[in-house]
Amino acid sequence: MGKEKRLTGMLAIFLFVAALSFFVIGNGKEARQTTSSSVAEQDGHNKDIGKVALTFDDGPHPFYTEQLLDGLKERGVKATFFVTGENAQLHPDIIERMDKEGHLIGNHTYSHIQLTTGNREQFREELIKTNEIIMEITGKEVIYVRPPYGSWDKKFETELNMFPVLWSVDPLDWCSSNVSCITNRIIGDVEDSDIILMHDCYESTVTAALQVVDELMAEGYTFVTADEILFD
Ligand SMILES: [Zn+2]
Fold this sequence. Notes:
Order of helices and strands: HEHEHHEHEHEHEHEH
CATH superfamily: Glycoside hydrolase/deacetylase
Low-confidence stretches: 15-44
Distance between the termini: 73 Å
Helix content: 40-55%
Strand content: 5-15%
CATH architecture: Alpha-Beta Barrel
Oligomer: single chain
Bound molecules: zinc ion
């Protein structure tokens, strides 16, 4: 009788411990699920859906580039600027600011020249001259080039240790002053690891770019400099 009572008692303790551990484990799991789903509900979107790079060509512009830099700084966003040597020479203070604020600076030739079959040497000289102008201001070597109109000769990569950065989203901002037209083209096309082409010499581009930053950040995108997309 006594033995039987002890066994019943042990069984009861075992069942109690088993039930308690089940409750604790189950509850913990449920608690975690609740936490993650409530975060998603609060934000209304998924986090970390990708990264994109904003790139701006043809600057620096004495007014719009500074306006853009202000907006990017407010949002903690880094972009890539492909500047011409001519404009860099005119506005070294803006180049210095871009560099100090963590943006990537690339070469867009000296005079916005397009590479053709007949001007390879001149194009090469413009790349070198522009590199020297930027390097004198920032003290940093220039590695990336956005060749005007996308014309490039792969041999420059080994000759000059320079690499082209093309683009995957082109909102044609230079031909439209309509801000929502520019933003809609970008938001409609954008995917993870896209490089967006824009020009920091128009007021509409500055407004559109900052709207795009706000919308895509709210969707869960991260903004990075172009090198982070190329060498990921
Ligand atoms: Zn250009």
